[in-house]
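Can you give me the bound-state structure? Components:
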Amino acid sequence: MMDMLLQTLMQGVLLGGLYCLFALGLSLMYGVMRLTNTAQGDFILLGSFSAVAGIAALKWLTPDATWMPLLLSPLLLLIAFGAGFMLQRQVLNRVLGKDPLPSLVVTFGLSIVIQNLLLELFSADPRSIETGGLNIASVQLPGGWAVGVLPLLILALALAATYGLQWMFDHSALGRSFRAVSDDLEIAQLMGLNAKRVYAYATGIAFMLITVAGVLQAMRTTVSPSDGPMLLLFAFESVIIGGMGSFKGTLIGALLLGVTQQIGFLFDPGWGIWFGHIVFLLLLLVRPQGLFPKTVG
Amino acid sequence: MNALLQTRGLTAFYGDAQALFGIDFQVDQGEMVAIIGANGAGKSTFMKAVTGLLAVQPAQILWQGQPIGGMSASEIAKRGIALVPEGRRLFSSLNVEENLLMGECAERKGVWNLLRVYELFPILKQKRLQASTSLSGGQQQMVAIGRALMSNPALLLCDELSLGLAPIVIKEIYSAMPRICAEGMTVVMVEQDVSKAREVSSRLYCFQEGSVSLQGVSSTLTAEQISQAYFGLPNKHGAALP
Amino acid sequence: MSTFTVTRSNRSSRTAMWVAVLLVLTAATIPYWAPEDNRSAWMREFVEIACYLVFALMWNLLAGYGGMVSIGQQAYFGFGGYTMLMLSNFAGINPFVAVPVAALCAGLIAVPVSFIAFRLQGGYFAIGTWVIAEVFRLSFANMSMVGGGSGTSLTAFTGISKAVREQTTFWMALAGMVASVVLVYVFLRSKRGLALMAIRDNEVAAESQGIAVQRTKLAVYVVAGLGAGLAGAMYYLSNLRITPDAAFSVNWTAFAIFMVVIGGIGRIEGPIVGALIFWVFNKFFSDYGSWYLMGLGLLAILVTIYFKQGLWGYAQQRWGWALFPTQRRLD
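Here's the bound-state model for the whole set.
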């Protein structure tokens, strides 16, 4: 019994690592510019499918070089940054403002466009990325448990991304601008900051995180074009549980969500996700500011 | 003509409501000019227009001879106009030093840097890593001034420096002014404290209901003239009436 | 000092009102004069559009007037549908009676839901309502008595002829549609409605004027839930077969957003114009499947960026058209 509980806990933590990667981009965009990206999940899938297509193309071009996909990664990240930057500059910057509706409609519209585009290009069949056995490889831990290598890798990446982002916010000039525009946009502009460009950097970085999340999701399991909303909700719940304005909070929220879902799955496969939602709603009722909200002085 | 900043018939609106009714204003290189007036007289609106937070006709504001009305705030900051905002408005997530460093966003060269700001306000060096919100009102005002100085402006705008501060603190803040001006800084200050304004400035303007009701050399204006212009009472010299 | 008069309607709005009344009366008689082989199809299509319209109208009330953007109103749509079905199938209630009852139930359940939903604001409120809708969906998908994930059928009509069922459903939908429009219109012209618009424009200022902000927001949320429930109950009265994935699909809200944004948010005519445009699009383009949906999404994005007031709002600004004047003009 204890064994099973600990196993569940561990699975939950590993799952939470992935959820954290889903959520960091959302947290970043909301933190810097109060933009709720309802297309978050769909952009993640765009990353997944881009990687799937890219690898398929590479395999066709260079069938013998199995290390080609690795070469693809930094290129994909660069493209992702550029895409996010341009999207913010050309589209999202136009709909930012006091009224949340325009940005919600535009991101929601993007969500529908992406979902259907992916559906047309890739059909509804689930796809995944060949990992050459990485997704089933496991490592032995003391105590006699086996832990998947890929989940561990994902958790490690999540931790790196979380602490990396936090470091960037706290110690870099760009991070300073992010915090400044978030605190007081008017004064930041008076200092000479070009808010539109700062926002574009934020979205660019968010898209890099989104792409990493998408690629890992496709390695861990299968992805299909209609998965978007589900991923968005997991990302969202992670951010809210953890508390807005804190990346570490998002990490903790994601881990908690993962664990909660795994516990739910223990009882019945049909209730796993439902249980996660319920715990989220209960937490919202009891502590709406989340577990570790950033205290704004 | 050494006019650094000039406004000609400046009019400004908040939506349909007119707030400024043709302000003629000028400050020359190296001057310290004060703007006084009751609440709602248009002083803050004037500041907003000059710093680019409020859209106005381009030719109504001339900076170093160039029309800048309606330009974006960040553009104007890069051209050398810095604001110490009313109520300080420090960045709450940033500590003292980070707030000061934000001044560098204007990407301008000059004599002001972190070292010199800390020389001007030594207490800030002591508290440099503290949250800006944990400082006293007077210290926050120092940070706000330092932050504006860090952008090495050609014109420093100070909006209500003495607001909410104890007299002894106000004195301390103003004692820094001579050193700021010694480098040739041009300053325009909006002040609630009329006597302080007269004391530190060479010229002053009085705003009343969106217009200039009085202007002149500070030392030659009488208290009676000023209070009449301030409150908009008719005066024997035929100045502006409401 | 000149005297001011406050007017609401103008000539074009009064003419339009009579035209609308005429249209409704004409529509009511469709079962009698529509060609025999098309009658069924026309009535079904009308019911469908009526449901879309009511749902969009209520979404508009909530978002455009109430300032609460929700991506989760489908929760009440599906709840209304399922409640109507369960009351008819299991409690032996006449399905036609079950529709308004189900709508009321949807309104009632909105109260406890609001306790949770109102913890969030703005964009996060929107997604939070989506989570709640998902909870509704998963809950019903796990209820075996209504067929779980595969859904179930409305069986309470055995014994009633097809013609009678279809006609009554049709009139019910027409009545429901008219009632919704009238209700929203009357509400917005009332003091409560003005209060709502004041809250939307500036919540803090409204509170300082003595407006009970929280209570008004709750009232609007409940009414919107009730309306969505009505739309859902009516829809499945006509459709006869319900599944959780369809009843609680976010597409309902997506279509409502489309209709309202294209037509113009924050105006009553908006959803009506939007629903008509949507119906036309549906007729011609829905065969294109994903491309059609992509087109809808792109159109919504473009209209939001370039025609912030929606197409009707644009017309109102340009030519002063107003069918349902709720704004007061100072002359």
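A couple of observations. The interface with chain C takes residues 30, 34-36, 38, 91, 94-95, 100-106, 108-113, 115-117, 119-120, 229, 232-233, 236-237, 240, 244, 270-271, 273-274, 277-278, 280-281, 284-285, 288 of chain A (CB under 8 Å). The mean pLDDT of chain A is 88.
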